[in-house]
């Protein structure tokens, strides 16, 4: 972030004060921008090749695909000059793909574990005959009807913030994980319906889970 801020401030100075001191054929802005970009790329590559935690991989990918140059393009003068310079990506394609795969694998595991924990806690509530929460006067499973879906949505939103392509790939992977989760949910619910008819909150739990179906659809 510090490097990015410095680059923006310096390139702004180049546009406003330095560029006009040289003949156009010197391409002063391009020289400054390319030198900054080359240094940025070397740092990004160095970081990418080191051992990174999952959160670090996400931050690096976000910077490379989304944040880099985006803030600078908000400045009209800088945007016009940057459009004339083909800076390319900060990371080699192969290294970027490798990081994306690690990120996607990690994100799928995180969401999958979150869904599993939600279902386990929900089933425990059924066994303990806990009355479901009410939302706007209607029985609703907060864990499954809200939190589980938020886990899916949040995971996909994080991926989309990196790039559209990464978001689409994660969406495909999460849909593959969603099917076995819903099957496990259905099997557990069918088991509850058969074995727990004498529970005090049997009917409210049924209603809450029926209401969940609409949310999942």
Structure explained in plain terms:
InterPro entries: EXOC3/Sec6 (IPR010326). One of its GO terms (molecular function) is SNARE binding. It comes from Climacteris rufus. One of its GO terms (biological process) is exocyst localization. Pfam families: Sec6 (PF06046). By secondary structure, this protein is mainly alpha-helical. It folds into two domains: 1-91, no CATH class; 96-216, Topoisomerase I, Chain A, domain 4, CATH 1.10.132. The protein has helices at 2-18, 28-48, 54-67, 76-82, 93-127, 142-162, 164-195, 202-216; strands at residues 133-135, 138-140. It has a two-stranded antiparallel sheet with strand order 1-2. The longest helix has 35 residues, at 93-127. The radius of gyration is 25 Å and the shape is elongated. The two termini are 40 Å apart.
Second CATH tier, the architecture of the largest domain: Orthogonal Bundle
Q: Structurally, how many domains make up the residues? A: 2
- CATH class division of the largest domain: Mainly Alpha
Widest sheet: strand order?
1-2
Determine the structural class based on helices, strands and strand pairing.
Answer: mainly alpha
Rg, Å, rounded: 25 Å
Low-pLDDT stretches: none
Taking the alpha carbons of the first and last residues, their distance comes to 40 Å
What's the tally of helices? 8
**What's the overall geometry?**
elongated
Question: What amount of the residues lies in strands?
Answer: under 5%
- What's the helix-strand series? HHHHHEEHHH
Largest sheet, in brief, is: 2 strands, antiparallel
At CATH level 3, the topology of the largest domain is Topoisomerase I, Chain A, domain 4
Q: Average the pLDDT over all residues and give the rounded result.
A: 92
Strand segment count = 2
Instruction: Tell me roughly what share of residues is in helical segments.
Output: over 70%
Protein name: TNAP2 protein
InterPro entries: EXOC3/Sec6
Organism: Climacteris rufus
Pfam families: Sec6
